[in-house]
Write a structure and sequence with these properties.
Blueprint (H helix, E strand, L loop, with lengths): L7 E2 L3 E4 L2 E4 L2 H12 L7 E6 L13 H9 L4 E6 L18 H8 L2 E7 H12 L5 H4 L18 E8 L5 E8 L10 E2 H5 L22 H9 L3 H7 L29
Parallel strand pairs: 1-9, 4-5
Antiparallel strand pairs: 2-3, 6-7, 7-8
Length: about 260
């Protein structure tokens, strides 16, 4: 879970008498509420589920339950789900349920697919020479295929599809060069519970040369300012009348009603 100032981790598994146990979905939602309640209601959160495969999707807990439970939280949020298509589903996964990849592809506003950069280069080189790609040679093998250089640390190929509300979408292909030796600090949920203070919005920590906050005096002055488009609606406007004196061209001749057209 990500916030502008901190990152927090909510583990899915825990130990109970040396046994590895998995938390219920309701417990995870409660942990998220514990974190969000410490912040102002105007704060925006990024909730990252890494990964959805760890839930062992069955008929008892499905993908729609997880997503709807998180989206029902009364906070401003962005939900990011990570799904590993290379991990097979359990045999108990209902056959009448859509595959997680199909379900996520249907409801997501942005889909980011990650591929090995070396695989993309090998595929492109094979197509340029009208040869069979290395991955197609292994397609007839049963089981999980992990081609060579799958975990290439030089970079990754990113395929992004962003869908707009009007039905249009933006498709982009890019390459991300991975930087090594970078460690990101993440606070565990148990350590977070030990904090009793309320975390407020920390704008002063931003590296900017101007102030974004207003003092109480400035807020009162702002409220007392009358904007022009409000002031114009309150100005008294006296009633006006239009006086019109009919001329000869307005006389109607009953014998020739179109006579006025010849004037």
């Amino acid at each position: 879970m990500h916030h502008a100032a901190s990152d927090y981790s909510i583990p899915l598994f825990y130990k109970d008498n040396k046994n590895l146990m998995k938390k219920e979905l309701s417990t995870l939602i409660y942990n998220i509420k514990e974190i969000t309640s410490k912040y102002e209601i105007s704060q925006r959160f990024i909730i990252l589920v890494d990964s959805i495969d760890a839930f062992n999707l069955t008929n008892k807990i499905n993908l729609s339950d997880i997503i709807s439970s998180i989206l029902s939280l009364n906070v401003s949020k962005t939900l990011i789900l990570i799904y590993h298509s290379s991990i097979p589903l359990l045999k108990s996964y209902p056959v009448y349920y859509p595959l997680p990849s199909e379900f996520l592809s249907y409801i997501s506003t942005t889909i980011i697919s990650v591929h090995s950069l070396s695989h993309k280069i090998a595929t492109k080189n094979a197509k340029d020479k009208a040869l069979i790609t290395p991955l197609e040679n292994d397609s007839c093998i049963e089981g999980i295929i992990v081609p060579l250089d799958s975990n290439d640390t030089s970079g990754i190929f990113i395929d992004t599809e962003h869908r707009r509300k009007n039905g249009k979408y933006i498709h982009e292909e890019s390459v991300l060069m991975i930087k090594t030796n970078v460690i990101k600090s993440i606070v565990d949920i148990d350590h977070f519970k030990k904090k009793t203070y309320i975390i407020e919005k920390q704008i002063e920590d931003l590296n900017i040369n101007f102030n974004l906050t207003l003092t109480d005096k400035q807020k009162k002055q702002k409220e007392s300012v009358i904007l022009p488009h409000f002031k114009s609606q309150t100005i008294y406007q006296p009633e006006s009348s239009i006086f019109y004196s009919p001329g000869s061209e307005d006389d109607l001749d009953e014998e020739d009603p179109d006579n006025d057209l010849l004037l």
